[in-house]
Design goal:
Elements: H1 18-24, H2 29-37, H3 47-50, E1 69-74, H4 89-93, E2 111-114, E3 121-124, E4 129-132, H5 136-139, E5 145-152, H6 158-167, H7 177-185, E6 195-198, E7 223-225, H8 242-262, H9 267-290, H10 297-302, H11 310-327, E8 332-335, H12 357-381, E9 388-393, E10 397-403, E11 407-411, E12 415-421, E13 428-430, E14 432-433, E15 440-442, E16 445-446, H13 447-457, E17 467-469, E18 472-474
Parallel strand pairs: 1-8, 1-9, 5-13, 5-16, 6-7, 6-8
Antiparallel strand pairs: 2-10, 3-4, 5-12, 9-12, 10-11, 14-15, 17-18
């Protein structure tokens, strides 16, 4: 032990240790940040540029980006592709007949015969892109969508599927796409987090770790804002007068700076100290963000916020807030779906219709259709569409054959997702499933390919954006992934 212990040593009962001070002050915010930033791990890609004192500062991309921000509209529960963006006439022709090909194990193995879609498909826009009548509003934006009809997943269960599509791994402990985005690019707004989840719909199955930072520094985990609550972010409302709070923070800062000097300017500790200031600034930035009094009634109606159906109105609020977040320079925003009015038990996976497909998908499409179309149109009107990327996806698709009488089981072997915004060739359909919609058979894509493409549009090389942990270099795309160039403009 040193013969010259620190003035703040825990062996001095008359003094307070720095760790105790961090734990007791500011609801422990500093200690949480310090713990995350002191964790092991180091980037091998562009290390000097990335190991900077301020983790929120904007960072230089690998090459010129097409977009600045991502909005992830995650359709938790597994949307049926053959009922939405992948028309299969054979299902109508062979409705009620046995499947002509072997059927692989499903979630419940209660497999029936071929089931036709309850909805008609029509061609939309100048491109003639076919879209189900489930989405009349999104159909009006057909020429903006780049649909991938050949997406695949390695997971056939909700929690595993949710982890996989968010992190590239089918279990907990790995950084989400949003965390990788802020790690690679920082933020353009120093008053708000770079990665925000609008959490009023609740977390998908698998829980909040789906949005976690994994082994990346803790500053890159999602911040959850629930606009349906009086206090949208816990403890965001000051519990004391601003002058008193500022005085207390200055006192803490003096302690921090003294400790930082003793470490000769350790960058990780300096980053933790900076978290105090952003927490303070968020006290005004977050309430201002969720205050929609400055938005016109026409804008709110565009998003469907005037709907008497609470779930649709609230999802519309999320979409409007997503626009306000990217407008403020937030890098990655994720929206959450609400439980259906007729089935409040499906909070974590509301698109999951093993029975009652027509009722369930109708309710969910009604919830998200107008708000998402409103988001696209509003971004365009404000000149933000070309610098924003919208990703629409569930964790997997659904089977072309029935489960029970009128449901569909999980299908990870071929399903549809779409992208819209900067750098996307709108009005396109890439890849294909077989004539039953069971397997992806043409230009097969993976979740790794999806995120490689997203990172490419953000100006990041998915093979270079790595982080060393446990003796190996990790990335969002693991050791896989190719940019899906045919959907790029």
């Amino acid at each position: 032990m040193s013969n010259n212990p620190s003035r703040f040593s825990i062996q001095r009962p008359d003094l307070v240790s720095r760790r105790a001070m961090l734990a007791k002050c500011s609801t422990g915010f500093g200690l949480v940040a310090l713990s995350g930033l002191m964790g092991g791990g180091k980037s091998l890609a562009d290390a000097p540029a990335r190991e900077i004192a301020n983790p929120f500062a904007p960072r230089r991309p690998h090459f010129t980006p097409k977009v600045k921000s991502v909005i992830f509209c995650f359709m938790s529960g597994g949307v049926s592709h053959v009922d939405t963006f992948d028309p299969k006439p054979r299902l109508k022709r062979d409705h009620g007949k046995p499947m002509p090909v072997p059927v692989r194990a499903t979630m419940f193995n209660e497999n029936g015969n071929i089931m036709a879609s309850p909805w008609e498909f029509r061609n939309h826009g100048k491109s003639g892109l076919p879209i189900s009548e489930l989405f009349p509003h999104i159909a009006s934006c057909a020429d903006d969508l780049g649909v991938i009809r050949s997406m695949t997943s390695i997971a056939n269960e909700h929690a595993q599927g949710n982890y996989f599509i968010h992190t590239g791994f089918s279990f907990a402990g790995f950084p989400s796409a949003g965390a990788w985005t802020t790690y690679g690019l920082g933020s353009e707004n120093q008053n708000l987090p770079g990665f925000v989840v609008l959490s009023s719909g609740g977390a998908p199955l698998g829980g909040v770790n789906i949005f976690g930072n994994g082994f990346l520094p803790a500053v890159h985990q999602a911040s959850f804002i629930d606009p349906s609550q009086k206090e949208p972010l816990p403890n965001i409302t000051p519990r004391e007068a601003d002058g008193l709070q500022r005085k207390r923070l200055r006192f803490i800062d003096r302690l921090d700076q003294r400790h930082l000097a003793s470490l000769h300017g350790d960058e990780q500790v300096d980053s933790a100290i900076r978290n105090y200031e952003i927490a303070y600034r968020m006290q005004s930035a977050v309430p201002d963000l969720v205050d929609l009094r400055g938005e016109s009634e026409a804008t709110k109606q565009l998003y469907g916020m005037d709907s008497p159906v609470r779930e649709k109105a609230e999802y519309g609020r999320q979409c409007l807030l997503a626009r306000r977040l990217v407008e403020r320079g937030v890098r990655f925003v994720e929206l959450t779906c609400f439980a259906r009015p007729s089935d409040q038990g499906q909070i974590g996976n509301p698109w999951d219709q093993h029975g009652g497909l027509k009722t369930g998908h109708t309710e969910m499409a009604f919830q998200v259709d107008q708000p998402i179309a409103g988001l696209i149109k509003d971004l365009k009107a404000r000149g933000l569409f070309e610098e924003t990327l919208i990703v629409w996806a569930g964790e997997f698709g659904r089977t072309p054959f029935a489960q029970s009488k009128d449901g569909r089981d999980h299908n990870p072997f071929g399903f549809s997702v779409w992208l819209a915004g900067g750098g996307i060739k709108g009005g396109t359909a890439h890849g294909a499933t077989d004539e039953l919609g069971y397997y992806a058979v043409e230009n097969v894509c993976t979740v790794y390919d999806l995120w490689a493409t997203v990172q490419h549009l953000l100006g990041l090389d998915h093979e270079r954006l790595t982080y060393r942990f446990g003796g190996r270099d990790y990335r969002l795309t693991d050791v896989h992934g190719h940019v899906i160039r045919p959907i790029l403009a």
